[in-house]
Each structure stands twice: as C-alpha cells, then as structure tokens.
Amino acid sequence: MTRILALSLALLAGSLVTAEAETAKVTGKPDAAVTEQITAKLSEEGYEVRKVKTEDGLYEAYAMKNREKFEIFMDADLNVVRTKSE
C-alpha cells in the first residue's frame, strides 16, 4: 500500500512539473516558484535579476552584473545553456 501511494505521489509530482512547463509555453511566463528559484540561483552568482520569461522552450532571465546587461538562457533543470551580454 505504501509503495502504491509513493508511486502515485511521484506520478502526480511529475505531471505537475509538466503542467507548469506547458503553462509557461502558452503564457511565456513561468510560475512564481520557478521564477524564485531562477532568481535565487542567479543572485548567488552575483546577478540582479530584472525579469524572467520563457522563450523557445527555455527560461530566459534578464539580469545585471557589474553594470552590464545579460540575457541568461536556462533549460528545464535550470542549467545555464547560453549567456548573452549587451
């Protein structure tokens, strides 16, 4: 019984992540929890995050560091895949 409950909870958690990703694709805006995770991760690296959105299947954060503007692209696991500075 415990295994069935654990499996059910794991499947539910997976479907919630998928649902959030689908919502982000439609709206172009990730939910508040993902935005908070991205902001926290990039703040630890010295960035001041100004805006987070989704584009082309990636999260895109607009941030400042050392008076320079950056666009930081992250995958679904919040790994940085590309950084562009202006």
Note the main attributes of this structure.
86 residues; alpha+beta; Nuclear Transport Factor 2, Chain: A
Task: Explain what you see.
This is PepSY domain-containing protein. It comes from Roseovarius gaetbuli. With 86 residues, the protein is an alpha+beta fold. The chain has a single domain, classed as Nuclear Transport Factor 2, Chain: A (Roll). Helices cover 45% and strands 34% of the residues. Strands 1-2-3-4 form a four-stranded antiparallel beta sheet. Strand 1 and strand 2 (58-65) form a beta hairpin. It is elongated. The chain starts with a helix and ends with a strand. The mean pLDDT is 82.
Mean pLDDT: 82
Strand content: 25-35%
Indicate the structural class: alpha+beta
Give the radius of gyration. 15 Å
Unreliable spans are none
The strand order across the widest sheet is 1-2-3-4
What summary fits the major beta sheet? 4 strands, antiparallel
Q: Categorize the overall geometry.
A: elongated
Keywords: Signal
Signal peptide: 1-19
Protein name: PepSY domain-containing protein
InterPro entries: PepSY (IPR025711)
